[in-house]
Design goal:
Length: 373
C-alpha cells in the first residue's frame, strides 16, 4: 500500500544497535573527518589500557608465586646445608701422595668408602675398636661422567707401611683410614686417594629405613641365624635385613669376595632409590636421608661440607647406569701362618688397575667387572 512504507523497512532498521550507539556517541558533528580517527584512537587506548592492566596483574601474580617457590627451595637447601655442616665429623688427614698426578686425569677423584663394624650409634666411635668390613674405592671420572666402584676384599694380603704384610683391613686397625689409604695407594702404584668416608653399621641400617627399604638383587640365596634369609632374585629389605645381607659371608661360594659383590648390590639399590623422584622430591625423606648419611659418617680432615655439597651438585645428572662395579684383582686363596686365610693379589692386573685409575682410563678396564642388577 502506497500510504504504508513498513514493507520497505527491514525489521530493526528503525533502531540503533549498541555498537552504532557507541559509535555515534563518539562521532563529532559537521565535516570534521579527523574526529573519527581520534575517537577510534581513544577506544584503542582504553582497550590496550585494560589489556595492559590485566597482563600486569597476571605477571605480578606469577612472579610472586615463582618467588615463593624459589624462597622455599632456597630455604630448604640452606636447611640441608645446615644439617650437613652440623652432623659431619672430621677425622684424620690423608697422607700426601709422592706421585705427581697425571695430566690426563683431569679433575677425577678417588674416594675411599669404608664400612665400620661398630654399632654404637655414636659417630665419635665409628673407628673405635672397629674393623673395616667394607672397603670400596670410588673413582669419579673427570667431568663427572661415570663412576667405578672397586671392592678390595678385606682378606687381601698386602704390604702395610711400617707393619710388614697382612690382610688389608689390618691397616685400618693399625692406623685408621689414613694408613689404609696409604696402603691402597702403594698397592696401586701411587694413585692419590683424595678423600675418605666411613659409615658405621647403624648408619647402613638407618639409611635403608629412611629410604623406605630398598629392593636388592640377591645372586646367592642363603639362610643363616643372625644374618637373615634371602631368596635368589630381588628382595625388599629394611634396615636390619640389609645389615645382615651386607655382613654375610659364611654361606657364600667365595666368602668375602661375594660379600663385596653383595655390598655393591646394596649400594646399587640405594643409588637407584636415592635418585628416584620419590626421594628427591620428598622433603621429609630427603632430609632424613641426608641426616643419616652424615650423622654416622666420618670424613677426612680436609673435606668440608662445601666440598661434599659441590660434589653432589656436580654429579646431579649421574644415573645408576653410569656406575660400574669391580672386584680388585686376585688369583685365589691361601693360608698364612700369621694372617690365616688370605686372598692372593694378582700383581700384574693390580698394576693395570692402578694405571687405569691414575690416568682416568677406567672405561677401558674390564678385569674383575661385576654384573650388579
Amino acid at each position: 500500500m502506497s500510504g504504508d512504507n513498513r514493507d520497505d523497512v527491514l525489521p530493526g532498521n528503525d533502531q540503533e544497535s549498541p555498537h552504532e550507539a557507541d559509535s555515534t556517541a563518539e562521532q563529532p558533528t559537521g565535516d570534521n573527518s579527523g574526529g573519527y580517527a581520534a575517537a577510534a584512537t581513544r577506544r584503542g587506548r582504553r582497550r590496550r589500557g585494560k589489556k595492559a592492566s590485566w597482563l600486569k596483574v597476571t605477571l605480578l601474580t606469577l612472579l610472586s608465586m615463582f618467588l615463593v617457590v624459589v624462597l622455599a627451595f632456597v630455604g630448604f637447601a640452606l636447611y640441608l646445608n645446615h644439617v650437613l655442616s652440623s652432623n659431619i665429623t672430621h677425622g684424620q688427614a690423608l697422607p700426601s701422595s709422592t706421585v705427581k698426578p697425571a695430566v690426563d686425569a683431569g679433575n677425577s677423584q678417588n674416594i675411599l668408602l669404608l664400612g665400620s663394624d661398630t654399632r654404637s650409634g655414636t659417630v665419635n666411635d665409628v673407628r673405635a675398636g672397629g674393623r673395616a668390613d667394607v672397603i670400596q674405592l670410588v673413582h669419579i671420572s673427570a667431568g663427572r661422567k661415570s663412576v667405578q666402584i672397586i671392592h678390595f676384599p678385606r682378606d687381601l694380603y698386602v704390604a702395610i707401611p711400617g707393619h710388614g704384610k697382612n690382610k688389608i683391613n689390618a691397616a685400618f686397625a693399625y692406623g685408621g683410614p689414613a694408613l689404609l689409604a696409604q696402603t691402597l695407594s702403594d698397592l696401586l702404584g701411587g694413585v692419590t686417594i683424595n678423600r675418605y668416608a666411613i659409615i658405621d653399621f647403624k648408619g647402613f641400617a638407618d639409611l635403608t629405613n629412611d629410604l623406605g627399604g630398598v629392593n636388592v638383587y640377591v645372586a646367592q640365596p642363603f639362610t643363616e641365624a643372625g644374618y637373615g634369609r634371602f631368596h635368589q632374585g630381588y628382595n625388599t629389605m629394611n634396615g636390619a635385613q640389609a645389615l645382615g645381607f651386607v655382613r654375610e659371608r659364611h654361606q657364600l661360594a667365595e666368602g668375602d669376595i661375594d660379600r663385596g659383590r653383595d655390598q655393591q648390590a646394596w649400594i646399587s639399590a640405594v643409588v637407584r632409590k636415592t635418585l628416584s623422584a620419590g626421594t628427591l622430591l620428598n622433603p621429609v625423606k630427603l632430609t632424613n636421608t641426608v641426616t643419616d648419611l652424615t650423622k654416622y659418617t666420618e670424613v677426612d680432615a680436609n673435606t668440608s661440607a662445601g666440598d661434599i655439597r659441590n660434589l653432589a651438585l656436580d654429579m646431579r645428572n649421574m644415573r645408576s647406569r653410569d656406575i660400574t662395579y669391580f672386584t680388585a684383582p686376585f688369583t685365589g686363596f691361601a693360608n698364612n701362618p700369621v694372617a690365616g686365610s688370605i686372598d692372593v693379589v694378582n700383581v700384574p692386573q693390580m698394576k693395570k688397575l692402578g694405571q687405569a685409575l691414575y690416568h682416568d682410563k677406567m672405561a677401558g678396564y674390564t678385569n674383575g667387572k661385576n654384573v650388579i642388577q
